UniProtKB/TrEMBL annotation:
Domain Hydroxymethylglutaryl-coenzyme A synthase C-terminal span(s) in chain numbering: 225-395
Keyword Transferase: yes
Listed name of the protein: Hydroxymethylglutaryl-CoA synthase
One GO term (biological process): acetyl-CoA metabolic process
SUPFAM superfamilies: Thiolase-like
Family: Belongs to the thiolase-like superfamily. HMG-CoA synthase family.
Length: 453
């Protein structure tokens, strides 16, 4: 029995700042961002959008486009690192919104939960749902990844921001991709990127919140957390490389093969916090896993690093990137980071590219290299199924991305600082954040959403 992804949908912010505009404002060479990191546009949430809105929109599209009967869904598992509540998961919001919209259906017996492990939480949710469907082939599950990748203004992460969600239906005998048995994991507890709680005094908070009613009964100090991470960019790259390399070679062991593994993959789908992360990180694996290019020096040595750099600049590697990695990069360049959704947007981008260019890929294998800071990598593979094109017909990824509305630098900063009061784009056929309760004592902080026709 095969198990994997039967249908896929997405939702993104639909407003963007051109990366050139950001480069000019921050006095960064545009070529560095465009040619060095592969960035073109950066998306961020409008006033009426948050991670619940993105997740609910992607899920609603999945249900409508594929005529899904909600009574058949046993699980909705969410991957996110942008939770809006420390207790109530985003999946709990999704349940009530779906019941609100699809009144004839019920999700009362559906199991829901959020998975958090930085950018790899969605892959953890997927693996879990795949195992569940393998044990219960008649049942179906949905995985939703949703995030706002928000970084501090003027930080090195600022140009890699993005926002949106991907939703996937997991079934037996799937139409898009069936995953193979082996999943390799590499884990190490590190501080490369994290979102810690910080202690703030009552004075600091009231100074920054205009005496919001919410803080009326504030104690002397309080633990809060920011949406933006604490991170060390270059160290996070090193952790990404170390974990993915280890997971890749563990995967070869699990498969008991000495062949160059990436040669068997038609496309390689990696976690892309920005478009060119994959190509910048994969050159080491590329060099190590090829009999002719074995590098004998110690992995820490300057010679080793130099040889990896040479490989990355070679024409052979550039051709390899164009063939196997570039289709996944296309959407990332136009959206930015989706944290948990980045790897699945890479999959969708690759499928949409082959769909639009009319290339048949049924029967080919895709390799996946996932990464989450903190840190963990998972490597796995799957085979594209004969009906992948029919399942993709309604997605129209690149057509949708073209409709994104450009914003200027002032609007960008005011959205980032949460000072913008009016939505940039008028919502249509989508979920919106309606209000946050500020008065009823037992409900203070509760978020309410509504569907706008
Ligand atoms: C969250 C996670 O997924 S963890 C893994 C990734 N980490 C992150 O995303 C954390 C947030 N992001 C960041 O901190 C940063 O954006 C980083 C670390 C990803 C990038 O850091 P920066 O210091 O901005 O860039 P860096 O110097 O590493 O690379 C710039 C690239 O542009 C190239 N470049 C620079 N100037 C130019 C130019 N004028 N023309 C063309 N290319 C240029 C450089 O050569 C380099 O590419 P190469 O190493 O492939 O040769």
């Amino acid at each position: 029995m095969k198990t994997g992804i039967d249908a896929i949908s997405f939702d993104v912010a639909n407003i963007h700042l051109p990366i050139k505009t950001l480069a000019t404002a921050r006095n960064i060479e545009p070529e560095k961002l465009e040619k060095g990191l592969g960035l073109i546009k950066m998306t961020l949430p409008d006033v009426h959008q948050d991670p619940v809105v993105f997740g609910a929109n992607a899920l609603t599209k999945l249900i409508l486009d594929h005529n899904i009967n909600l009574n058949e869904i046993s699980r909705i598992y969410v991957g996110t690192e942008s939770s809006i509540d420390s207790s109530k998961p985003i999946s709990s919001f999704l349940i009530s919104l779906m019941e609100q919209k699809f009144r004839e259906n019920t999700l009362a017996e559906c199991d829901v939960v959020d998975f958090t492990f930085a950018c790899i939480g969605g892959v953890d949710a997927l693996q879990n749902c795949i195992d569940f469907v393998k044990l219960n082939p008649a049942k179906k599950a949905i995985v939703v990844t949703t995030d706002f990748a928000k970084y501090d203004l003027n930080s090195t992460g600022e140009y890699t921001q993005g926002a949106g969600a991907v939703a996937m239906l997991v079934t037996s005998n799937p139409r898009i991709i069936a995953f193979d048995e082996n999943w390799a994991t590499s884990t190490k507890g590190v501080f490369d990127f994290f979102k810690p709680y910080r202690t703030l005094s009552k004075e600091e908070i009231t100074k920054n919140t205009n005496n919001d009613l919410w803080f009326d009964n504030l104690e002397a100090e309080i633990e809060i957390h920011k949406d933006q991470p604490v991170f060390d960019g270059q160290y996070s790259n090193q952790c990404y490389m170390d974990r993915t390399r280890n997971a890749y070679f563990s995967f070869k062991k699990l498969k008991n093969t000495t062949e160059t593994l990436y040669n068997s993959w038609n496309s390689i789908i990696m976690h892309l916090p920005y478009s060119f992360q994959g190509r910048r990180m994969l050159s080491e694996i590329y060099a190590l896993d090829s009999a002719e290019k074995i590098i004998s020096e110690n992995i820490e040595s300057a010679d080793y690093q130099l040889k990896i750099k040479e490989v990355a600049k070679s024409e052979e590697y550039r051709n390899f990137v164009t063939e196997k990695l570039q289709p996944a990069e296309l959407a990332s360049s136009l959206i930015g980071n989706l944290y948990t959704g980045s790897i699945f947007m890479g999959l969708l981008s690759t499928l949409a590219h082959f769909y639009d260019t009319n290339k048949e890929i049924a029967g080919t294998q895709f390799g996946f290299l996932a990464y989450g800071s903190g840190s963990k990598s998972k490597v796995f593979e799957g085979t594209i199924q004969p009906e992948w094109k029919a399942a993709l017909a309604n997605v129209k990824l690149f057509e949708n991305l073209e409709e994104s509305v450009e914003i200027d630098f002032n609007i960008y900063e005011s959205l980032h600082k949460k000072e913008q009061k009016q939505s940039v784009r008028t919502p249509k056929n989508e979920w919106t954040l309606d209000r946050i309760e500020k008065e009823i004592p037992n409900l203070i902080g509760a978020r309410y959403y509504k569907w706008v026709d």
